[in-house]
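User: C-alpha coordinates in, sequence out, please.
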Protein backbone atom coordinates (compact mmCIF):
# COMPACT_ATOMS: atom_id res chain seq x y z
CA UNK A 1 0.00 0.00 0.00
CA UNK A 2 1.56 3.25 -1.16
CA UNK A 3 1.21 6.46 0.86
CA UNK A 4 1.91 10.04 -0.20
CA UNK A 5 2.67 12.26 2.81
CA UNK A 6 0.85 15.55 3.27
CA UNK A 7 2.78 18.70 2.44
CA UNK A 8 2.50 21.80 4.57
CA UNK A 9 -0.82 21.81 6.42
CA UNK A 10 -2.84 24.99 6.19
CA UNK A 11 -4.01 26.43 9.54
CA UNK A 12 -7.74 26.17 10.16
CA UNK A 13 -8.42 29.92 10.05
CA UNK A 14 -6.43 30.30 6.85
CA UNK A 15 -8.26 27.39 5.22
CA UNK A 16 -11.62 28.96 6.05
CA UNK A 17 -10.56 32.38 4.76
CA UNK A 18 -9.14 30.93 1.55
CA UNK A 19 -12.25 28.85 0.96
CA UNK A 20 -14.68 31.72 1.53
CA UNK A 21 -12.63 34.00 -0.71
CA UNK A 22 -13.31 31.56 -3.55
CA UNK A 23 -17.09 31.64 -2.98
CA UNK A 24 -19.54 34.22 -4.30
CA UNK A 25 -23.29 34.30 -3.62
CA UNK A 26 -25.36 32.56 -6.25
CA UNK A 27 -26.90 34.58 -9.05
CA UNK A 28 -30.44 34.17 -10.20
CA UNK A 29 -33.75 34.88 -8.57
CA UNK A 30 -37.22 33.42 -8.31
CA UNK A 31 -40.64 34.61 -7.28
CA UNK A 32 -42.20 32.64 -4.43
CA UNK A 33 -45.42 32.84 -2.47
CA UNK A 34 -45.08 34.55 0.90
CA UNK A 35 -46.09 31.30 2.61
CA UNK A 36 -42.93 29.71 1.15
CA UNK A 37 -40.59 32.66 1.73
CA UNK A 38 -39.47 31.99 5.31
CA UNK A 39 -35.68 31.81 5.55
CA UNK A 40 -35.13 32.91 1.95
CA UNK A 41 -32.92 35.88 1.04
CA UNK A 42 -34.72 38.86 -0.45
CA UNK A 43 -33.55 39.64 -3.96
CA UNK A 44 -34.79 43.24 -3.90
CA UNK A 45 -35.79 45.97 -1.50
CA UNK A 46 -39.53 45.76 -0.83
CA UNK A 47 -41.44 48.98 -0.14
CA UNK A 48 -44.99 49.28 1.14
CA UNK A 49 -47.54 49.98 -1.54
CA UNK A 50 -50.02 51.12 1.12
CA UNK A 51 -49.84 52.25 4.75
CA UNK A 52 -50.64 49.97 7.65
CA UNK A 53 -53.07 50.47 9.15
CA UNK A 54 -54.90 52.24 6.33
CA UNK A 55 -57.38 53.73 8.84
CA UNK A 56 -57.48 54.63 12.53
CA UNK A 57 -58.26 51.48 14.48
CA UNK A 58 -58.68 50.41 18.09
CA UNK A 59 -55.81 48.56 19.72
CA UNK A 60 -57.94 47.43 22.72
CA UNK A 61 -61.51 46.32 23.28
CA UNK A 62 -63.48 49.22 24.76
CA UNK A 63 -65.46 52.30 23.83
CA UNK A 64 -64.65 54.75 21.06
CA UNK A 65 -64.91 58.27 22.46
CA UNK A 66 -64.23 61.93 21.74
CA UNK A 67 -61.41 62.88 24.14
CA UNK A 68 -62.84 66.41 24.50
CA UNK A 69 -66.00 64.93 26.07
CA UNK A 70 -63.93 63.47 28.92
CA UNK A 71 -61.60 66.40 29.58
CA UNK A 72 -63.22 67.15 32.97
CA UNK A 73 -64.09 63.56 33.96
CA UNK A 74 -63.02 62.40 37.43
CA UNK A 75 -63.89 59.72 39.95
CA UNK A 76 -66.03 62.27 41.86
CA UNK A 77 -67.55 63.77 38.74
CA UNK A 78 -67.72 61.05 36.07
CA UNK A 79 -69.02 61.72 32.58
CA UNK A 80 -71.95 59.72 31.24
CA UNK A 81 -71.92 59.02 27.49
CA UNK A 82 -74.73 57.67 25.34
CA UNK A 83 -74.03 54.31 23.68
CA UNK A 84 -75.10 54.57 20.04
CA UNK A 85 -73.71 51.39 18.46
CA UNK A 86 -70.89 48.88 18.25
CA UNK A 87 -68.01 48.27 15.86
CA UNK A 88 -66.45 44.88 15.25
CA UNK A 89 -63.10 44.38 13.52
CA UNK A 90 -64.73 43.76 10.18
CA UNK A 91 -67.31 46.58 10.37
CA UNK A 92 -67.72 50.30 10.87
CA UNK A 93 -70.22 52.71 12.45
CA UNK A 94 -72.57 54.02 9.77
CA UNK A 95 -72.54 57.59 11.09
CA UNK A 96 -70.17 60.05 12.82
CA UNK A 97 -69.86 60.01 16.59
CA UNK A 98 -71.49 63.13 18.05
CA UNK A 99 -70.72 65.06 21.20
CA UNK A 100 -71.55 63.01 24.33
CA UNK A 101 -71.79 59.74 22.37
CA UNK A 102 -69.76 56.54 22.39
CA UNK A 103 -69.66 53.22 20.55
CA UNK A 104 -68.43 49.84 21.76
CA UNK A 105 -65.45 48.80 19.66
CA UNK A 106 -63.44 45.59 19.27
CA UNK A 107 -59.68 45.42 18.88
CA UNK A 108 -58.88 46.18 15.25
CA UNK A 109 -62.17 47.94 14.65
CA UNK A 110 -62.24 51.12 12.54
CA UNK A 111 -62.57 54.20 14.76
CA UNK A 112 -65.86 56.02 13.99
CA UNK A 113 -65.60 59.44 12.41
CA UNK A 114 -65.40 62.00 15.20
CA UNK A 115 -63.81 59.61 17.73
CA UNK A 116 -60.15 60.04 18.63
CA UNK A 117 -59.55 57.68 21.58
CA UNK A 118 -60.65 54.41 23.19
CA UNK A 119 -61.60 53.78 26.81
CA UNK A 120 -61.02 50.13 27.68
CA UNK A 121 -63.96 48.21 29.13
CA UNK A 122 -62.24 47.83 32.51
CA UNK A 123 -62.15 51.63 32.98
CA UNK A 124 -65.83 52.25 32.27
CA UNK A 125 -69.17 51.01 33.52
CA UNK A 126 -72.19 50.45 31.31
CA UNK A 127 -75.87 50.24 32.09
CA UNK A 128 -78.38 49.99 29.27
CA UNK A 129 -77.39 52.78 26.84
CA UNK A 130 -75.30 54.75 29.35
CA UNK A 131 -71.51 54.43 29.67
CA UNK A 132 -69.86 56.10 32.66
CA UNK A 133 -66.19 57.14 32.56
CA UNK A 134 -64.37 58.51 35.61
CA UNK A 135 -61.13 59.92 34.15
CA UNK A 136 -59.88 61.95 31.18
CA UNK A 137 -58.59 60.04 28.16
CA UNK A 138 -55.85 61.61 26.02
CA UNK A 139 -56.32 61.99 22.31
CA UNK A 140 -55.00 58.92 20.44
CA UNK A 141 -55.12 56.64 23.51
CA UNK A 142 -55.41 52.95 22.51
CA UNK A 143 -55.62 53.95 18.84
CA UNK A 144 -53.34 53.03 15.93
CA UNK A 145 -53.35 55.93 13.48
CA UNK A 146 -52.98 55.43 9.71
CA UNK A 147 -49.38 54.49 8.99
CA UNK A 148 -48.54 53.78 12.64
CA UNK A 149 -47.10 50.39 11.66
CA UNK A 150 -45.57 51.57 8.41
CA UNK A 151 -46.23 54.37 5.93
CA UNK A 152 -46.72 54.04 2.22
CA UNK A 153 -43.29 53.72 0.63
CA UNK A 154 -41.62 52.49 3.82
CA UNK A 155 -38.89 49.85 3.44
CA UNK A 156 -40.24 46.53 4.68
CA UNK A 157 -37.35 44.29 3.57
CA UNK A 158 -33.96 45.28 2.21
CA UNK A 159 -32.22 43.41 -0.55
CA UNK A 160 -30.04 40.70 1.00
CA UNK A 161 -32.03 40.41 4.22
CA UNK A 162 -33.37 37.07 5.35
CA UNK A 163 -37.15 36.84 5.37
CA UNK A 164 -38.11 36.03 8.96
CA UNK A 165 -41.74 35.66 10.15
CA UNK A 166 -42.13 39.38 10.94
CA UNK A 167 -40.77 40.50 7.56
CA UNK A 168 -43.00 38.02 5.75
CA UNK A 169 -45.95 39.40 7.74
CA UNK A 170 -45.04 43.00 6.93
CA UNK A 171 -44.91 42.29 3.21
CA UNK A 172 -48.28 40.56 3.45
CA UNK A 173 -49.77 43.43 5.44
CA UNK A 174 -48.83 45.75 2.58
CA UNK A 175 -50.97 43.69 0.22
CA UNK A 176 -48.36 41.55 -1.56
CA UNK A 177 -48.78 37.82 -2.12
CA UNK A 178 -45.34 36.98 -3.54
CA UNK A 179 -41.75 38.14 -3.12
CA UNK A 180 -38.56 37.96 -5.18
CA UNK A 181 -35.85 35.88 -3.50
CA UNK A 182 -32.37 34.68 -4.34
CA UNK A 183 -32.41 31.18 -5.77
CA UNK A 184 -31.22 28.34 -3.57
CA UNK A 185 -27.60 27.18 -3.98
CA UNK A 186 -27.37 23.83 -5.76
CA UNK A 187 -25.08 21.48 -3.84
CA UNK A 188 -24.15 18.02 -5.10
CA UNK A 189 -22.70 15.38 -2.79
CA UNK A 190 -20.54 12.58 -4.14
CA UNK A 191 -19.45 9.71 -1.91
CA UNK A 192 -16.24 7.88 -2.82
CA UNK A 193 -15.28 4.40 -1.63
CA UNK A 194 -15.56 0.85 -2.98
CA UNK A 195 -16.75 -0.28 0.46
CA UNK A 196 -19.73 2.07 0.45
CA UNK A 197 -23.24 0.77 -0.10
CA UNK A 198 -26.50 2.71 -0.39
CA UNK A 199 -28.72 3.10 2.65
CA UNK A 200 -30.82 0.02 3.28
CA UNK A 201 -28.64 -2.29 1.16
CA UNK A 202 -27.63 -5.70 2.50
CA UNK A 203 -24.01 -5.54 3.61
CA UNK A 204 -21.25 -8.06 3.08
CA UNK A 205 -18.14 -8.26 5.19
CA UNK A 206 -16.05 -5.10 4.75
CA UNK A 207 -18.95 -2.98 3.46
CA UNK A 208 -20.63 -0.08 5.25
CA UNK A 209 -23.65 2.08 4.59
CA UNK A 210 -22.79 5.47 3.11
CA UNK A 211 -23.89 8.13 5.63
CA UNK A 212 -21.60 11.12 5.03
CA UNK A 213 -23.73 12.41 2.18
CA UNK A 214 -26.78 11.86 4.38
CA UNK A 215 -25.43 13.88 7.30
CA UNK A 216 -23.91 16.68 5.23
CA UNK A 217 -27.00 16.72 3.02
CA UNK A 218 -29.26 17.37 6.00
CA UNK A 219 -26.92 20.15 7.09
CA UNK A 220 -27.08 21.70 3.61
CA UNK A 221 -30.87 21.46 3.44
CA UNK A 222 -31.15 23.10 6.85
CA UNK A 223 -29.03 25.91 5.42
CA UNK A 224 -31.45 26.44 2.55
CA UNK A 225 -29.61 24.61 -0.21
CA UNK A 226 -31.04 22.50 -3.00
CA UNK A 227 -29.35 19.14 -2.50
CA UNK A 228 -28.44 16.46 -5.06
CA UNK A 229 -26.95 13.21 -3.77
CA UNK A 230 -25.10 10.93 -6.18
CA UNK A 231 -24.78 7.17 -5.54
CA UNK A 232 -21.45 6.03 -4.04
CA UNK A 233 -18.59 5.86 -6.55
CA UNK A 234 -15.93 3.10 -6.27
CA UNK A 235 -12.22 3.87 -5.92
CA UNK A 236 -11.69 4.30 -9.66
CA UNK A 237 -9.86 7.49 -10.62
CA UNK A 238 -11.29 7.95 -14.11
CA UNK A 239 -14.84 7.09 -13.12
CA UNK A 240 -14.70 9.34 -10.06
CA UNK A 241 -13.33 12.23 -12.11
CA UNK A 242 -16.15 11.87 -14.65
CA UNK A 243 -18.79 11.93 -11.91
CA UNK A 244 -17.27 14.99 -10.20
CA UNK A 245 -16.85 16.87 -13.49
CA UNK A 246 -20.45 16.12 -14.44
CA UNK A 247 -21.71 17.26 -11.04
CA UNK A 248 -19.60 20.43 -11.15
CA UNK A 249 -21.12 21.48 -14.48
CA UNK A 250 -24.56 21.88 -12.89
CA UNK A 251 -23.72 22.77 -9.28
CA UNK A 252 -22.63 25.78 -7.26
CA UNK A 253 -20.77 23.47 -4.88
CA UNK A 254 -19.63 19.86 -5.13
CA UNK A 255 -18.74 18.07 -1.90
CA UNK A 256 -16.87 14.78 -2.28
CA UNK A 257 -16.59 12.59 0.82
CA UNK A 258 -13.84 10.01 1.06
CA UNK A 259 -10.71 9.67 -1.05
CA UNK A 260 -9.27 12.90 0.31
CA UNK A 261 -6.22 11.64 2.18
CA UNK A 262 -2.82 10.39 1.02
CA UNK A 263 -3.41 6.67 0.47
CA UNK A 264 -3.14 4.65 -2.72
CA UNK A 265 -6.91 4.86 -3.31
CA UNK A 266 -7.25 8.53 -2.38
CA UNK A 267 -7.79 10.04 -5.82
CA UNK A 268 -9.08 13.54 -5.01
CA UNK A 269 -5.59 15.12 -4.71
CA UNK A 270 -5.01 14.11 -8.35
CA UNK A 271 -8.51 14.99 -9.63
CA UNK A 272 -9.10 18.41 -8.08
CA UNK A 273 -6.12 20.19 -9.75
CA UNK A 274 -7.35 18.92 -13.12
CA UNK A 275 -10.82 20.37 -12.54
CA UNK A 276 -9.81 23.73 -11.09
CA UNK A 277 -7.30 25.71 -9.09
CA UNK A 278 -6.26 23.81 -5.98
CA UNK A 279 -6.63 25.97 -2.88
CA UNK A 280 -5.11 23.55 -0.37
CA UNK A 281 -4.75 19.89 0.53
CA UNK A 282 -4.51 19.19 4.23
CA UNK A 283 -5.72 21.36 7.08
CA UNK A 284 -4.04 21.55 10.47
CA UNK A 285 -7.12 20.36 12.35
CA UNK A 286 -8.28 17.24 14.11
CA UNK A 287 -10.53 15.59 13.39
CA UNK A 288 -10.64 16.38 9.67
CA UNK A 289 -7.05 16.87 8.48
CA UNK A 290 -7.56 15.17 5.06
CA UNK A 291 -9.50 18.08 3.56
CA UNK A 292 -8.96 19.82 0.24
CA UNK A 293 -10.59 22.47 -1.89
CA UNK A 294 -10.41 23.75 -5.44
CA UNK A 295 -12.02 26.59 -7.36
CA UNK A 296 -13.56 25.06 -10.47
CA UNK A 297 -14.94 26.71 -13.59
CA UNK A 298 -18.51 26.58 -12.28
CA UNK A 299 -18.07 26.66 -8.52
CA UNK A 300 -16.27 25.32 -5.49
CA UNK A 301 -15.07 21.74 -5.01
CA UNK A 302 -14.65 20.47 -1.44
CA UNK A 303 -13.10 17.16 -0.49
CA UNK A 304 -13.98 15.83 2.95
CA UNK A 305 -12.61 12.90 4.99
CA UNK A 306 -14.41 9.59 4.90
CA UNK A 307 -14.54 9.12 8.69
CA UNK A 308 -18.07 10.20 9.68
CA UNK A 309 -17.10 12.37 12.66
CA UNK A 310 -14.22 14.00 10.79
CA UNK A 311 -16.53 14.68 7.88
CA UNK A 312 -19.38 16.18 9.90
CA UNK A 313 -16.99 18.10 12.16
CA UNK A 314 -15.60 19.80 9.05
CA UNK A 315 -19.17 20.43 8.03
CA UNK A 316 -19.67 22.59 11.12
CA UNK A 317 -16.69 24.95 10.86
CA UNK A 318 -16.11 24.85 7.07
CA UNK A 319 -19.18 23.77 5.11
CA UNK A 320 -21.72 25.82 7.05
CA UNK A 321 -19.98 29.15 6.37
CA UNK A 322 -19.59 28.20 2.70
CA UNK A 323 -23.30 27.41 2.42
CA UNK A 324 -24.25 30.73 3.99
CA UNK A 325 -21.88 32.64 1.69
CA UNK A 326 -23.37 30.88 -1.36
CA UNK A 327 -26.92 31.66 -0.23
CA UNK A 328 -26.04 35.28 0.52
CA UNK A 329 -27.06 34.88 4.16
CA UNK A 330 -25.26 37.38 6.40
CA UNK A 331 -23.68 36.50 9.73
CA UNK A 332 -22.40 33.27 11.24
CA UNK A 333 -24.14 29.92 11.54
CA UNK A 334 -23.53 29.96 15.28
CA UNK A 335 -23.62 32.25 18.28
CA UNK A 336 -20.72 32.49 20.70
CA UNK A 337 -21.74 31.75 24.28
CA UNK A 338 -19.78 31.36 27.53
CA UNK A 339 -20.06 27.98 29.26
CA UNK A 340 -18.52 25.97 32.07
CA UNK A 341 -16.86 22.67 31.14
CA UNK A 342 -18.60 19.73 32.79
CA UNK A 343 -16.09 16.99 31.94
CA UNK A 344 -12.56 16.62 30.63
CA UNK A 345 -11.82 16.91 26.92
CA UNK A 346 -9.04 15.17 25.04
CA UNK A 347 -5.66 16.89 25.10
CA UNK A 348 -5.21 19.43 22.28
CA UNK A 349 -2.64 18.58 19.60
CA UNK A 350 0.65 20.50 19.75
CA UNK A 351 0.49 21.10 15.98
CA UNK A 352 -3.20 21.00 15.03
CA UNK A 353 -6.32 22.90 16.00
CA UNK A 354 -8.70 20.58 17.85
CA UNK A 355 -12.44 20.74 17.27
CA UNK A 356 -14.26 19.64 20.42
CA UNK A 357 -17.91 18.66 19.97
CA UNK A 358 -20.06 19.58 22.97
CA UNK A 359 -23.57 19.32 24.30
CA UNK A 360 -24.48 22.54 26.10
CA UNK A 361 -27.27 22.57 28.64
CA UNK A 362 -27.97 25.10 31.39
CA UNK A 363 -24.64 26.80 30.80
CA UNK A 364 -22.61 23.59 31.16
CA UNK A 365 -20.76 21.97 28.22
CA UNK A 366 -20.31 18.20 28.05
CA UNK A 367 -17.92 16.63 25.49
CA UNK A 368 -19.54 14.10 23.12
CA UNK A 369 -16.46 12.88 21.20
CA UNK A 370 -15.67 9.14 21.12
CA UNK A 371 -13.75 8.46 17.90
CA UNK A 372 -13.42 10.10 14.48
CA UNK A 373 -14.89 7.02 12.80
CA UNK A 374 -17.97 6.96 15.08
CA UNK A 375 -20.90 9.11 13.99
CA UNK A 376 -22.26 8.96 17.53
CA UNK A 377 -19.33 11.17 18.56
CA UNK A 378 -21.52 14.07 17.44
CA UNK A 379 -24.87 12.72 18.57
CA UNK A 380 -26.48 15.32 20.78
CA UNK A 381 -23.81 17.93 20.03
CA UNK A 382 -25.22 21.43 19.81
CA UNK A 383 -21.95 23.37 20.08
CA UNK A 384 -18.25 23.08 19.55
CA UNK A 385 -15.05 24.74 20.65
CA UNK A 386 -11.81 25.15 18.69
CA UNK A 387 -8.70 24.65 20.80
CA UNK A 388 -5.62 26.22 19.26
CA UNK A 389 -2.45 24.18 18.56
CA UNK A 390 -0.43 23.67 21.70
CA UNK A 391 -3.16 25.01 23.97
CA UNK A 392 -3.57 23.61 27.46
CA UNK A 393 -6.44 21.20 27.92
CA UNK A 394 -9.17 23.12 29.76
CA UNK A 395 -9.87 21.71 33.20
CA UNK A 396 -13.23 20.53 34.43
CA UNK A 397 -15.13 23.60 35.59
CA UNK A 398 -13.11 25.94 33.37
CA UNK A 399 -14.89 28.74 31.57
CA UNK A 400 -14.65 28.85 27.80
CA UNK A 401 -16.48 30.37 24.85
CA UNK A 402 -18.11 27.94 22.44
CA UNK A 403 -19.95 28.18 19.15
CA UNK A 404 -23.59 27.33 19.84
CA UNK A 405 -25.45 25.88 16.84
CA UNK A 406 -29.13 26.66 16.40
CA UNK A 407 -31.65 23.86 15.86
CA UNK A 408 -32.16 21.82 13.77
CA UNK A 409 -28.39 21.64 13.13
CA UNK A 410 -27.63 21.75 16.85
CA UNK A 411 -29.59 19.41 19.11
CA UNK A 412 -31.91 21.12 21.63
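Assistant: Sequence out:
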Amino acid sequence: MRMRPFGRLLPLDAALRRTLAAVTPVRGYERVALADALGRVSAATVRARRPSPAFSRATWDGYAVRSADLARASARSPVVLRLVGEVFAEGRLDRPLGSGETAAIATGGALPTGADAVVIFEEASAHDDAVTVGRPVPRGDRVAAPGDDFAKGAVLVRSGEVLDPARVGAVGAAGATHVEVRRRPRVTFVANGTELRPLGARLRRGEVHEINNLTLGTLARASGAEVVQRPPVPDDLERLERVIADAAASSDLVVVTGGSSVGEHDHLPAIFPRLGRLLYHGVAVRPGKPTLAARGAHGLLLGMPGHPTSCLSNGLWLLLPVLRRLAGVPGDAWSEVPVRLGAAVRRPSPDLSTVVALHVENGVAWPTFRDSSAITSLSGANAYAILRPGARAPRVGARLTVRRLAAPIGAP
